[in-house]
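Holo prediction — iron/sulfur cluster.
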Amino acid sequence: VSAPLPFWRSKTLDAMTPAEWESLCDGCGRCCLHKLRDEDTGKLYFTEVACRLLDTATARCGDYANRASRVPDCVQLTPGKLRDIDWLPPTCGYRLVAEGRDLPWWHPLISGTRATVAQAGVSVAGRAVRERDAGDLEDHVARWPGQVPRRARPLPPITHKKQDNAA
Ligand code: SF4
């Protein structure tokens, strides 16, 4: 008898409980880095400058409960928003599951610890630049927040299509 599939493989994003949804976040902090978009071409550029609430030593939000009121453009992810967002990093747990991939070895739901997110080179802890130290964002454009670190490769293959994200 094979083991039942974990919730992220068996449920659609819309059917997950709030706790399941939250647990898809690996806490990497990459989405908390500022992005720039070229107004003419629409091209997206990642920077290594963190939101002012992010603790750059731990990659944790300094005020998670109140982040929406303290940083009005903080995006609180929902299944609906996920379909329209193009700036989540390729390692993001939400993006992986929405793409029909399994979670990788370093995701806390697989490894049982957040330490593996740093071991895989996915966490921004110790790597991001604090907003108050940054100056011009244009001076901090970086490719690594949009890339899969060598230690985090390969990402799991696409295994199935989700009904609610197939379009
Ligand atoms: S990029 Fe995805 S997995 Fe990483 S902190 Fe943001 S929501 Fe969580």
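READOUT: The first helix runs from residue 7 to 10.
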